[in-house]
Amino acid sequence: MLSGKEKIRVLIVDDSAFMRVLISDMLKNDADIEVAGTARNGKEGLEKAILLKPDIITLDIEMPVMNGLEALVELMKLKPVPKVIILSSLSYEGGEAAIKAFELGALDYVVKPVRSLITIDAEQMREELINKIKSICWSKTGYFPQIKPEYKPPSVYKKVKHKSRSDEYLKYIVAIGTSTGGPKALQEVVTKLPEDIPAAVLIVQHMPPGFTKSLANRLDSLSEINVKEAEDGDVLTSGWAYVAPGNYHMLVKSHEDNKYKILLNSEAPENGLRPSVNVMMKSVAETGHDKIIAVIMTGMGSDGSEGILEIKNAGGKTIAQDERTCVVYGMPKSAVNTGAIDTIAPLHGITGEILKCMGV
């Protein structure tokens, strides 16, 4: 961890000369950051990572000679393992690649601006990139994801999953919020849930459109429960998890016959975020359901702290990820500071705590 007094040394790896200059200029204007070097492809990036030992690397995906995913596999073999933020285009393909990158060890992502809209998007990208670099590098945790030597695509032959009926009474609602480091954390938690869990799971992960679809598909391929990107009008069903789609708030409303429906909207971002964990959790608290379990996991900022407090006040059970296993201990810390958290658990223990709340 850096003290905050030392400058954060960043290595920029991108095959576009234009993007290398743009990102360098963005970072050079911040007093806490120093551009240690740039590289034109993954092979050169790996060589410079060994030579320069940067605190963090921004890594493009599509590059000649050695692409970002190939470079990431090799970067994760270095000691100490470097921190990596992926830069990706905003597309379904970009989302697929980002999910692969998270499994290989990347900690976060930033969407590249479209060149034709560079003057509009550049400032937003600059603010997001700098905030994520600082949050990751100044984090007090020593956590690194469990590194996999390679990305294994989902099997073509998917196992038949337990099919709950939407007309069955929903015993529990589990609401999960996460951000930086979340895709890896969600994989740890969601894939351990049993197929016959008597609950529906709602997930807000801060991600843009396309990325959330890829995340839901990947979690579904690895989990016993069913996972999908939420759609407006979905009826909550036991054994299913619903991921809020990028750029939409996800709410839950009680319906007739003890049913609960998902509502999506494009109302104004809350504290700059859409989807918002607070919006989702507040709506869950307002359903009047008597058995709610709320979980806040790794992420920068404070999203979810207000929502989880409302769930606690409504009689729900609350869990926060501990500092040691968070990539960034922002959202869980804010939730803990509200006094609303019943249990603080390491990442590998969160699924167990969820099931314990159900008596499973």
Which labels suit this protein?
five-stranded parallel β-sheet; 360 residues; 11 helices; alpha/beta; Rossmann fold; seven-stranded parallel β-sheet
Describe this structure in words.
By secondary structure, this protein is α/β, with parallel strands linked by helices. The chain has 2 domains: 8-137, 3-Layer(aba) Sandwich (Rossmann fold); 172-358, Rossmann fold (3-Layer(aba) Sandwich). Helix content is 33%, strand content 21%. It contains 11 helices and 14 strands. It has helices spanning 17-28, 42-52, 68-75, 92-104, 118-137, 182-190, 211-222, 277-286, 305-313, 331-337, 350-358; strands spanning 8-13, 33-39, 56-60, 83-88, 108-111, 172-178, 199-205, 226-229, 240-243, 249-255, 259-265, 292-296, 317-321, 343-345. The strands form 3 sheets. A 7-stranded parallel β-sheet has the order 8-9-7-6-12-13-14, sandwiched between helices. A 5-stranded parallel β-sheet has the order 2-1-3-4-5, with helices on both faces. α3 (68-75) links the parallel β3 (56-60) and β4. α4 (92-104) crosses α7 (211-222) and α8 (277-286) runs parallel beside α9 (305-313). The longest helix has 20 residues, at 118-137. The chain is elongated, with a radius of gyration of 20 Å. The mean pLDDT is 88.
